[in-house]
Amino acid sequence: MTYAARPAIPTELDLEAFSHLVYAMRHRVSSPRPGNHASRSPGPFGRFQGLSLLAGDNDARRIDLKASITDPFEEIRIRRFAQPSNGTVWILVDLSGSMGFEGTVSRHAVAVALAAGLAEAVRRAGDKVGIVAACGDAAPVFELQPTRRASAPLEVATSLAAVQPSGAGLEGLAKCAASLPASPSLVFVVSDFAAPLGEIGTLLDALALHDVRPLVVADPDAEMPNRRFGLVHLDDLEGAGRGLIFLRPLLLATWRRERTARRQALFRLFVQTGCQPLQVTGQIDLRSLSEDLLSGTVAA
């Protein structure tokens, strides 16, 4: 296993490619600022919510003439609407030791590109974006409070690229998740999810109030050794040490079964907690990512 040097910082042109990503929030947002998401906020246009009396809502621009003329009590009726509004999107980035793995691609580089690219997509959609990154069980190494600043995506890319992935597990990220505002938000979790399933469950439980979309950063080189027979050095992805094993067909078959079982258990956990996982294998395929964001489903 090899670990990458500091990844290249995505350019403005790289981030621009993410600007057309479309996403939707499963919950209704509450904001006076017009946007693209279904909301509970009253406004002059949007989703029709019924009729009310002019005396209770004195906006004469929305008088319903037909309803007013036919009202048996001769009351003037106006239309009520819930206008589409802006929301807040959080991006949680796992920078534990396993995210420093470099196989087909650098996991660190993919995580940086995803976080900064999603920040650009959110900003272009008119929503606020907030970001928290943590290494293992340590305190956050980067925090960005919800903002619409045009410079935010490049700031995210620069800051995350400068962090060396380290530590083990998702305890630090789970603590960050527990401190997010209580109002429901869309939350992307960028990670390889190599931590124990118990820790992943704790993280998802901390995000129970939110619409969670795990972005699973996968790499075929991390799934199976690149040799099929003979002595091989293997490293624990979370830094627990290095070992020497003798690869043989029976061991490889067992390895393959256990990796498949673990992957299936991970996706079952996502389903049980109501999450909509998206898998990014190798290089980022923006077309596939966009389709998964719209459908909310991905094959395990």
Automatic annotation (TrEMBL):
Pfam families: DUF58. SUPFAM superfamilies: vWA-like. This is DUF58 domain-containing protein. It comes from Fulvimarina endophytica. It comes from the Bacteria. Residues 56-239 form the DUF58 domain.
